[in-house]
Amino acid sequence: MFGYVRLEVRRTLRDTGFVVGGIAMPVLMYLLFTNLGTDDGEWKALSMVGMAAYGALGSALNTGGAVAEDRATGWLRQLRVTPMTPREVVTGRALTGAVTVLPAIVAVLLAGALVNGVRLAVWQWAAITLLLWLGSLPFTLLGLGNGYRMTGPTTGVVNMACNLGLAVLGGLWFPISLFPHWLRALSGYTPTQRYAQLGTAVAQGHVPAPGAVVVLAAWLLLFGSYAVLSYRRRAGSI
Q1: What is the pTM of this model?
Q2: Is 78 exposed, middle or buried (0-12, 13-18, 19+ CB in 10 A)?
Q3: CA–CA dist 234, 14 (Å, integer)
Q4: 154 or 73: which leads in pLDDT
Q5: Calpha distance 72→66 (Å, rounded)
Q6: Which of 6, 25, 37, 227 could bridge across to 144 with cysteines, CB 3.0–4.6 Å?
């Protein structure tokens, strides 16, 4: 299974579309949003976390697009003749998503430190990276669920809608303080808003709120169930 993971990670990182859309774009958006007429150090630090979360979200969902493409080309059928069990194939894909979100997170954090001059303690940098990495798992499972359930083109459209919708509603692009009251209340139930809170709390020197962990864990269970049900539905055709 780990050989399969290495293969899929290499395939993903060699994909130009993934490198540009999943790594370069969040960095460019972060630098653009934080250097338009403001020099607020706190905003640059918090926006850095939000854009790192956005990059991880896109990279995690990309895993589902790759699954849909593999179904269309027959690669998943080929895997059925290998010694790997279906559970190992799904787990391998989830691990691939977990690995490929790291470049997006690290790239934005490096831009914050090297270009925008964000200064944090060593433990804060390490904790933000770890929390954003671990917290991206629900979105990987969402992408896998879409990829196993839908065709390649449909998966691409749905993942893009999930990416943009969750990013905006979760306040990854703009502070939720700018939202109307009703939208701010809705944002608190989104997985992305709670996901970003894991990192922003550490950036401000606090421990993440228990509520953020609970809400994100609930979404993890929901998206995990969705991925399993999607795989079972398509098991006969792959």
Answers
A1: 0.86
A2: exposed
A3: 28
A4: 154
A5: 10
A6: 227
Q: How far is CA 35 from CA 65, 117, 159, in A?
A: 33, 12, 29
Indicate whether 8 pLDDT > 80.
no
The dihedral built from the CA positions of residue 136, 138, 142 and 148, taken in this order, carries a sign that is positive
Whether the CA torsion 17, 22, 23, 29 is positive or negative: it is: positive
String of DSSP letters for 23-55: IIHHHHHHHHHTSSS---HHHHHHHHHHHHHHH
Torsions phi, psi for 30 (to 5 deg) = -60, -45
Q: Which residue has the higher pLDDT, 93 or 167?
A: 167
Q: How far is 49 from 200, CA to CA, in rounded Å?
A: 6
Q: What is the mean pLDDT of the chain?
A: 85
Least confident of 84-93, 108-117, 154-163, 199-208: 84-93
The number of residues making up the chain comes to 238
Interhelix angle for 25-33 vs 86-114, to 10°? 30
Which residue in this structure is represented by tokens 């490096």? 110
CA angle (135 as vertex; 130, 141 as ends), nearest 5: 135
Which amino acid is it at 139?
A: F
- 3 state SS for 132-196: HHHHCHHHHHHHHHHHHHCCHHHHHHHHHHHHHHHHHHCCCCCCHHHCCHHHHHHHCCCHHHHHH
